[in-house]
Known about the structure:
The complex is a heterotrimer of chains A (647), B (409) and C (437). Chain A is an alpha+beta fold and 647 residues long. Chain A is built from 26 helices and 12 strands. Chain A folds into 4 domains: 2-128, no CATH class; 134-213, no CATH class; 215-326, no CATH class; 349-645, ABC transporter involved in vitamin B12 uptake, BtuC (Orthogonal Bundle). Chain A has a 5-stranded antiparallel β-sheet. A 3-stranded antiparallel β-sheet of chain A has the order 6-10-7. Chain A is extended. Residues 14-19 of chain A have low confidence and may be disordered. Chain C has 437 residues and is α/β, with parallel strands linked by helices. Chain C folds into 2 domains: 24-149 and 296-374, Response regulator (Rossmann fold, 3-Layer(aba) Sandwich); 155-289, Rossmann fold (3-Layer(aba) Sandwich). Chain C has 14 helices and 19 strands. The longest helix of chain C is centred in the N-terminal third of the chain and has 20 residues, at 48-67. Residues 1-31 of chain C have low confidence and may be disordered. Chains A and C meet through α6, α11, α16, β12 and α20 of A and β7, α8, α9, α11 and β15 of C.
Amino acid sequence: MLRLFLAVLAALLLATGGLRAEPVGQILDTNRALIQKSSRLTIGPVIDALATSGDDRAEAVLQAWGDKHLGIRKSDGAFVLITRKGGDYVLTAPDGKAAGTAKRSDIDALRPNAGVRRLIDGALVQFQLNAPKRATRAAALDIIDRHPEAGQLKPLEASIPGEFDPGLRSRKERMLRLLTIRFGDDGAARIKAIESFGADTGLDLRGALNPLLDTKRVVTRAGETPPGNVARQLIPGKGIGDAAAYDLLVKAGDAPARLTPVARKQALEANIEGGKVGGVPVPDLSDPEARDRAYSALEQAGKVPQAATAAEVAAAVAAHAYWDVYAEPSKEVTDAARAALSKIALKVDGMEAFDLLLEALSLASIYFLAAIGLALTFGVMGVINMAHGEFIMMGAYTGYVVQQWIPNYTVSLLVALPLAFAVTFAAGVAMERLVVRHLYKRPLETLLATFGVSIALQQIAKNIFGTQARPLTSPAWLDGAWVLNDVVSISYIRIAIFVLGLVFLLLFLFVMNRTRLGLELRAVTQNPAMAASMGINPDRINMLAFGLGSGIAGIAGIALGLFAKVTSELGQDYIVQSFMTVVVGGVGNIFGTLAGAALIGTLQKGIEWLNPSNTLAAQTYMILFIILFIQVRPRGIIALKGRAAGD
Amino acid sequence: MSAYLRKNPSVLWFLAILALFVVAVTLMSPGTGSGMISTSFVKTLGKTLCLAMVALAMDLVWGYTGILSLGHMAFFAIGGYMIGMWLMYARTEEIVVKALSQSPIPPTPDEIFHGIGTQIFGVVGSSKMPLIWTFAGSLPAQLALVVIVPAVLAFVFGWLAFRSRVAGVYLSILTQAMTLALSLWLFQNDSGLRGNNGLSGLQNIPGLGGVSQDWLSIWFFWASAAALALAYILLAWVVSGKFGSVIRAIRDDEQRVRFLGYPVEGFKLFVFALTAVICGIAGALYYPQAGIINPAELAPIASIYLAVWVAIGGRGRLYGAVMGAVFVSLLSSWFTGGRAPDVPLGFGTIHWVDWWQVLLGLAFVLVTLFAPQGLGGLVDLVTGLRHPGRHGAPLGPDQGSLQEKEAQE
Amino acid sequence: MTKMNRRTLLLTGAAAVAAPLAAPRIARAADGDTIKLGILHSLSGTMAISETTLKDTMLMLIEQQNAKGGVLGKKLEAVVVDPASDWPLFAEKARELITVDKVAAIFGCWTSVSRKSVLPVVEELNGLLFYPVQYEGQESSKNVFYTGAAPNQQAIPAVDYFLGELGVEKFALLGTDYVYPRTTNKILEAYLQQKGIKKEDIFVNYTPFGQSDWSKIVSDVKALTADGKQVGVISTINGDANIGFYKELAASGITADDIPVVAFSVGEEELSGLGKGDLSNLVGQLAAWNYFESVDTPENKKFIEEWHAFTKDPKRVTNDPMEAHYIGFNMWVQAAEQAKSVDSDAIQAAMIGQEFPNLTGTTAKMLPNHHLTKPVLIGEIREDGQFDVVKKTDPVPGDAWSDFLPESKDLISDWADKKCGMYNTATNTCVQIKSNY
């Protein structure tokens, strides 16, 4: 309302000829200083003046300004609309006439900040709601959606009959109801609008309802009721603490402030007389009780102000009543809003639980993907490979390098996936032949040797790619998120990781149970000597299996790089968790790894939900839990039994 | 006594070399000698001795008992934190008391306590003294905690792990998880040890404000040398008797020892806790020389490096561990200090700052593969020790952990 | 020269272990016809990426000064050491620089931990440290000059921008779990509450270094909009973790118009870790610094040109801490010329009150609390990974002790008159002269 008044006032001031359309160029010139150093707090009248100027160029100028396409020519200080053409600008005067071209350095382009742009957008809404282009109208609705204002109610209502696009029409109608809830002046219409939504979980609806229930804390004398729409009374000791209640009284000016220790000390210091304060010798004042005595003595002598004692505080608190009062005056509206919100809250809780479950599932699939290669090398073969994380990293860097060569993200991804597999497969085979093979009988030393490989690989990656994170960008079709409603959504890249995990699970099962390699591998791991005498070459099988596990890690690396970042420490971030996943799940069984990942993912999300402000705590407690869990089930969730268990 | 020395010929050698080293450093240090080496180098040497002490502990737990713990640096850091709490508290108390004494009214104990809290936790945006700082004001209490906290933690962790027969690589991963959890916990501000900032300014010893670092550094160097000597003597005694035979037997075949009626878990638990205590003491000596401790010090990688030192030095012999720790850590600081000359190749230059890690990693692989005896193997060459001819049969499950005594047969 | 010989002789008799490590140091300490400056920035380890740039900046500045004839008629010599992102090593190297190399001043450190590690050493040995990075404040040492921003020179103006220009009513303070975010957020929480933002409208979250799983946190932030208030995010997220955060933000369709994010640790360098596609989703998100490469002033243009020429890399970006070193170094030169000495005490006295034009068109002044006056710039991310400056304040004097925290509101630092880094104005006492680290 005030805004509108200001706008009219400004328009009157600026428009010398009354109703005659004021040229926008003139408005710009008059308000040059405000526009050049624009701030949301002061620019309002200028924008309103432009919007209400009646000049048909107003929309174009506002649009250009909001898009950072308005500039000032340095030579003569004229406002111009600019369009980039090569290294230069093509200029247009505010009145729409072409104004030639200029070098970029000759133009001071205006860069209104987001707050100012928001006001500009707001002013443009009235033009855009009935614009011929569907996209423009949709954009106008987005603006209303973000920053609803009272002034939008009328134009929006007026634009509905002329809206023939069914999608936009229903959006407009929904928005109209939302605006009515917020700004409508007819109580019955507002209640109707509130009730029309039912248990809708939209953030916009909750955003409209919650402000209706804003309360203010009010103090009255005991026995009185405050004016306005009372939400509830607060009883000291129950709804409100005694200390908080007294603070309210102090704030309201109904009671003297309590004496703080600092104030008391200063008062005592100011009253030292001959080595004594209020009759108490100064050296004794290191005792709080002595300070109390000294202060009481000074109070009695009238040298310091009276401070509220505990009894006085209690009496003052008891003599008043404390209330929460709604800012919204209509009781019917607040009741309807409260009823609607409590209905929504139940549904939102359910949705949140579902969303948490999705996130847990997603985290589990990430852990699973990182660990699945290990499930083969560590779980089945029993070889501990500390360089597994570095294979993940190698895969991610392969993806990065491919993207440098192939700019199309989709194609590069299709190339990178097999390439990453090939690279890490080769690295895995090389490591198996050169290092791991000689240490099959010495598992602890395998751990150490592969760790040596791990630090070397990590440092080599640092030397080649630097310590800075490298971009690995997902193709456009993996951008964005699958949105069920405003509560439940999950990004496509996470879904892709989930699918990839699923594919690998099936692949793993297929290889292990349906192929010759799987059969031979199982034979070799159970009894190498016997397998060898059946004509299986254990060396070859081990090599292939190790390569396969490493190759899977490489592909996982691309997925993890797409989802977060590519650094030389990418693998290190996952290695401990990966081993945990395999160990918790139980070695030798892919379903164990799956269960382990599910357990760890759910647990971590659960703890995060309990303590949302500290993600680090979630990780700490998760690891502690795992340590304890291993005590209870040393062989993991799904333990192998009998001979297959080895010892 | 003589029986002890006969069983452990390396003790005399070790003590003699250590003594010689201490005398040399004392003569060259800025505090007590010519000042030929700088104070910071004296500190580096003192710290290296502490690291050698941890390596000794690691050797006992890994080389002799066969438990590859990847968490012993956690105990080392805990020792540092315990002493660091006292150092910070006492130093801050001095400052606060001095500041408050300027006001005309003597401070109450509460004001002092609050002042210390504000000073220590001001940097992390808090002023409350957490509960774990209860004993921080008392040096004897914190010194006791240097021993007690690692011991208790090792005992509880070991009891849980050994009781449920977690062994081999599983145990390694579990110890790694333990140190990771601990470091993540310490990284949190809520844990009350100043989060990522850790405890700093530890080189300034409360009450010794007038003593220059030149002197403090050499005092700590002596203390570290003495502690290392004591640890060596103690561990040599531990491994040479019947106890030593049992733990080596556990390393070689745990099941068999168990069937012979020995309480394997008890032995392992004792070794685990004892080494944790040694690490704690070493940490308490190390961090006042380093000056700052923060949770990054107990990242899992630190414990793995510890294993690297011991492996390169040679497992199953105490002097091997010391050699490995001293050699690798000094070499490492030389290479990463940017003082190693660059090697120009035709197509590029090798900057050792960048390539040292690669070299270390590969050296480590090679040592594991081809020289399981590590640097200690050199001593065998000199003394003409030969490996027992076992006609191809492996020397227990852990070939690298060759034991002196065994090799003399 | 004879001294040198004796040293060399003694050296040959030294213990075999000590010799290779100590030798180069001693040789270097002997010559005295140059003025030495120590450069203490990590050249390896996790911080190398940020700090190497600063080392190069210092080398460039020293080279330029030598071309102008050096300082006090002597050439400057840079002594570069590598503390390898290892905090205890910072203290050790600082001690070497001061005692062995006898440097006149040290330019160095990046993280708060490394500064806290060096602090006791420079105070003990009365050295000088120029610290160029934005930090959490609550410190003022006689021996340190803080040329980066204090919270009131970065965080508070950014919050004011949120409150005033963007009308943000509800805040999410997201940070990496270490000292700078912790302290900054504490100050901001207190400040916001004074500005009338309710405690329940401030959501705080800390994540570990290198956090990559942001879905829960982003959806938590999104859920904050449910009560119809404008939500803004203040991010003190550090380093690589930003990439995952911004990716998740983009994936959930949150734009700068929905929920603005202002970051204090994201500059030109950090954005280069994001691809083009990701950047276009971030356009309009904010960062607050005292300098942006895109600032259009003649000084900045010249600086960037010199930088490209020195590094022989026309694409190398410049950033805020580089400007801090530029100012700090030039002030040190001025102070040395004025005091006719590079002695630590003389410089400390001469530094206060020094003025030097910064790169953004105003003048930086060294205050008695060893902090600078700095203008605060707020920039919006562009598609090319640079920033559009949308707001620039007048130079703000740096405040060592925050006025918004109850425990430090009475504290000031004044090394000119009161000679005290932590002076309580309520009780009129000096709490401490040396820092407590």
